[in-house]
Specification:
Blueprint (H helix, E strand, L loop, with lengths): L2 H6 L12 H8 L9 H5 L2 H8 L4 H27 L9 H18 L7 H33 L4 H30 L11 H29 L10 H13 L2 H22 L1 H7 L8 H23 L4 H24 L8 H40 L4 H29 L16 H26 L6 H20 L1
Helix pairs in contact: 2-8, 2-9, 4-5, 5-7, 5-10, 5-16, 6-7, 6-9, 7-16, 8-9, 8-13, 8-15, 11-16, 11-17, 12-17, 13-15, 14-15, 14-17, 15-16, 15-18
C-alpha cells in the first residue's frame, strides 16, 4: 500500500490551501520585476550599446556577463537570507519592499549613460549599472518566487499560481513593447540613441508601480504564512552547507543543470535577435513590435493551455514539448535561409518570422508554467528527504542557473560579433547591408548553434523523475510528519 493510502486516504484529501483570486492577482503583478518588464526592456540593451553606441561587442558581452555572474552569486545569498527572516510581514516581503525603488532607479540609469564616455567609460557604466539593476532584481525576485511556492502546496493549484504570474508577465511585456516601438523607437528609432533614456525611465516607473501594488496586495496573506524557526549562526558559515544540501537532491540537480545549458542558448539567441531581424531579415524597427506581439500571444496560448494539458500529462512532458517548439524556432527558418530555399526579406519576411516567434512563444509558455511548478515540487521532496524547507535556495538556484548561463551566452554573442567582423557604423545606419558571409555567420550563431546547445539541455532534463503520483506520496508523508509533531 502506498504512502498516500496509508497516511492520507484518497488523493482528494491531499488538496492544499487555495489563495483567493485577488491575492493571486496582486501577487502576479510582481512578475513585472523580472520577465514582464525588466527582461523585455533589457532585450534592447545589447543592441543599444553594441550597434547604436558602438561599444565593442566583446566589451558589451563582457559587461553583461559580469553583471549576470555577479547576480548569480547574489541569488543564493538572498535565498538563504529570505529563508531565515522572521518579521511581522513574513519572511519574504521585507526584502521585496526594499528592492522595488532600487530596481526602478538602476533601470533608468542603465538606459541613460552620460555622453562622451569613450569605450572603457561606457563599458564601466554598462557593467556597474547592470550589476546594480540585476542585484536589486534578485533582492526582489528570489523571495517573490519563493513566496509563490508557499502560497499553496497543492500540485495543481501551484500551476494556477504560476499561470497568474505568467499572464501578468505577458501583459507587462506587451505594454513595454508597445510603449517602446510606438513611442520611443518609431520610424527607425531603434537605431537612434535619443529614444533610449526616455524609454528606460518609463519602464522604471511602470516597474515601481507594479511592484508596489504587489507588495501591498499580498502583505496580509504573506504575513500569515508559517515561518520556520531561524537557523543559528552567520549566513556565510551556514550557506555553503545549505548549498551542498540542495545539490544532494537529484531532482534539483537535474532541473539546475538543464537550466544552465538551455539558458546559455537563450543568451546567445536573444542577444542577437535585433541584429538578425534588422540586418538579415531587413525588417524596419517599427515592425519588430509585431514579432514581440506574436511571441507574447504564443506565450499566452501556452500559458492558458498548459494547465489543461497538465490534467492529462506530467509537467515533465509539457517542458519537453516546449523544448521542441523552441528548438524548431532556432532551426527551421534559419536552415531554409542558409540553404537559399526560402530567404524572404523586408515586408515579405514579417509573416514567416512572426509565425516562427509565435511557435517559440507557445513552447516558452509551456516551460514557464511547468518548470517553476516542478521546482516547487522538488522543494517539497527536499523537505521530505532532509527535513528543512529550502524554497528560497531552490529558486535562487534556478535564478543562478538562468543568470550565470545567460551571461555566458551573452558574452559568447558579443565575442561572436567581433569574430565575424560585424562592421562598425551600420548600427545607426537605417537600411545598411551586411556582406553575405557576415550575414550567414550571424544566422548560424543566432539559430543552429543555440538549437544544438538546447538539445543537450533537453537530454539532461529527461532524467527528472517527480511524477504526480510521487508528489502525492511526498505530500502525504509531510502531512503525516506534521501531524505527529503536532500531537507530540
Amino acid at each position: 500500500m502506498s504512502i498516500v493510502e496509508d497516511a492520507a486516504g484518497p488523493a482528494a484529501t491531499l488538496v492544499g490551501p487555495k489563495p483567493p483570486a485577488l491575492v493571486k492577482l496582486a501577487y502576479s503583478l510582481g512578475q513585472s520585476a523580472q520577465s514582464g518588464g525588466f527582461d523585455t526592456a533589457i532585450g534592447f540593451i545589447f543592441f543599444y550599446y553594441a550597434a547604436v553606441l558602438e561599444l565593442s561587442g566583446a566589451l558589451v558581452g563582457a559587461a553583461l556577463a559580469i553583471s549576470l555572474a555577479f547576480d548569480a552569486v547574489v541569488d543564493p545569498v538572498v535565498g538563504s537570507w529570505s529563508d531565515n527572516i522572521k518579521s511581522r510581514l513574513g519572511r519574504r516581503l521585507p526584502l521585496m519592499m526594499v528592492a522595488a525603488p532600487l530596481i526602478a532607479l538602476s533601470v533608468g540609469l542603465l538606459f541613460s549613460p552620460p555622453g562622451e564616455l569613450g569605450q572603457w567609460g561606457l563599458f564601466g557604466w554598462l557593467a556597474v549599472m547592470s550589476v546594480a539593476a540585476r542585484s536589486f532584481i534578485s533582492l526582489f525576485n528570489v523571495p517573490y518566487i519563493a513566496l509563490g511556492a508557499e502560497l499553496t502546496n497543492d500540485y495543481v493549484e501551484r500551476t494556477s499560481v504560476v499561470v497568474y504570474r505568467a499572464l501578468a508577465g505577458i501583459i507587462f511585456a506587451f505594454l513595454i513593447i508597445a510603449v517602446g516601438y510606438s513611442v520611443f523607437f518609431a520610424n527607425g528609432g531603434l537605431q537612434r540613441a535619443e529614444g533610449y533614456p526616455g524609454f528606460g525611465w518609463t519602464v522604471a516607473g511602470l516597474l515601481l508601480v507594479s511592484m508596489t501594488l504587489c507588495c501591498l496586495g499580498v502583505r496580509r496573506y504573506a504575513a500569515a504564512l508559517p515561518q520556520p524557526d531561524q537557523i543559528a549562526g552567520a549566513m556565510w558559515r551556514r550557506l555553503p552547507g545549505e548549498v551542498m544540501e540542495i545539490f544532494r537532491n537529484r531532482s534539483f540537480r537535474t532541473l539546475f543543470i538543464s537550466a544552465v545549458v538551455v539558458f546559455v542558448a537563450i543568451g546567445v539567441n536573444a542577444s542577437l535577435n535585433n541584429h538578425a531581424h534588422i540586418f538579415v531579415w531587413k525588417l524596419k524597427s517599427e515592425q519588430l513590435q509585431f514579432l514581440g506581439y506574436a511571441y507574447l500571444v504564443g506565450i499566452f496560448l501556452g500559458v492558458v493551455v498548459a494547465p489543461a494539458l497538465q490534467r492529462f500529462m506530467e509537467k515533465k512532458n509539457l517542458v519537453l514539448i516546449g523544448f521542441v517548439a523552441l528548438i524548431g524556432n532556432w532551426l527551421v527558418l534559419q536552415i531554409l535561409f542558409l540553404t537559399g530555399l526560402y530567404a524572404p526579406t523586408g515586408d515579405a519576411a514579417l509573416t514567416p518570422v512572426a509565425v516562427n516567434a509565435f511557435i517559440a512563444g507557445i513552447g516558452v509558455g509551456f516551460v514557464s508554467v511547468a518548470y517553476p511548478s516542478m521546482m516547487a515540487d522538488a522543494a517539497d521532496e527536499h523537505e521530505h528527504l532532509f527535513g528543512r524547507r529550502r524554497e528560497g535556495l531552490y529558486f535562487s538556484g534556478l535564478g543562478f542557473a538562468g543568470k550565470a548561463a545567460t551571461g555566458l551566452g551573452v558574452m559568447v554573442a558579443g565575442v561572436a560579433l567581433d569574430l565575424i567582423q560585424f562592421p562598425k557604423g551600420v548600427g545607426h545606419t537605417v537600411g545598411a547591408v551586411l556582406p553575405p558571409d557576415v550575414q550567414d555567420r550571424l544566422v548560424i550563431i543566432w539559430g543552429p548553434v543555440a538549437a544544438a546547445i538546447s538539445i543537450i539541455s533537453m537530454i539532461i532534463f529527461a532524467a527528472y523523475a517527480i511524477t504526480r503520483a510521487r508528489h502525492d506520496e511526498i505530500t502525504a508523508a509531510l502531512r503525516l510528519k506534521a501531524a505527529g509533531a503536532g500531537a507530540g
